[in-house]
Design goal:
With 251 residues, the protein is of the alpha+beta class. The protein has three domains: 130 residues, Sandwich (Jelly Rolls), CATH 2.60.120; 46 residues; 59 residues, Orthogonal Bundle (Arc Repressor Mutant, subunit A). The strands form two sheets. It has a five-stranded antiparallel sheet, with helices on one face. A hairpin with a 2-residue loop joins strand 4 and strand 5. Pfam families: AraC_binding, HTH_18. InterPro entries: AraC-bd (IPR003313), AraC_XylS_family_regulators (IPR050204), Homeodomain-like_sf (IPR009057), HTH-like (IPR037923), HTH_AraC (IPR018060). Keywords: DNA-binding, Transcription, Transcription regulation.
Length: 251
Amino acid sequence: MVEVLHARFTEHVYPMHVHDAWTVLIVDSGAVRYHLDRHERGTPGDTVSLLPPQVPHNGEPATADGFRKRVVYLDMTQLDERYIGAAVDGPDLTDPLLRRRVVQLHAALADPGDELEAESRLAFIGERLRAILRPRPAVTGGGPPRGVAGDLRDLLDARLPAAVTLDEAGRLLHAHPTHLVRAFSAAYGIAPHQYVMSRRVDRARRLLLGGHPPALAATAAGFYDQSHLNRHFKRVLGVTPGRYARAGQGG
């Protein structure tokens, strides 16, 4: 498990972004509307939404009253890349047992000293998710497609947190910069600069939770300065880095 998040939003709209981890989302009140792999999805009833890593998605309130959510971020030790395709095809899981186990995990995490119970709850969530999803032995929906779009994503990932210019990418990949942008956006539903910025926000978030002050987290994650981090962090997550760090330190 990477991180746990509780939040309530009434107006914040998540832009297209990606995460390095699996997102396990339950909505306690209201509803969320989002796009994943160019398909509009939602959180009807008592579902559990499972958003796979490295697949761009956005999100916004589906009602005027907003929504209240609880999220668990899982690393690849719980679900590996074989399950990404199945999650892209059907991210909103109607499974009362799975939802009950997610609720139980959040309850265990709320009480310091119950770490063993939380680990047990997490293990059962992973087991249930693997039973629901059918792993794909071949290339999944989350892997880079063949061609220049996949090559560009590999290059962007390899250079993180530093940036690569489009001119340099064009020379390395033997393609015109505008073709790179069009191909990447068409393949992933997100522009190259949005992809890089969301990966940097993800990195900054982990650094903040690890105790790094915002100014140091900003430079370590590839932002120009703390102001640059603040602007993009709040745009993606709806909260400032400082407030996010204080909430994480408070458990």
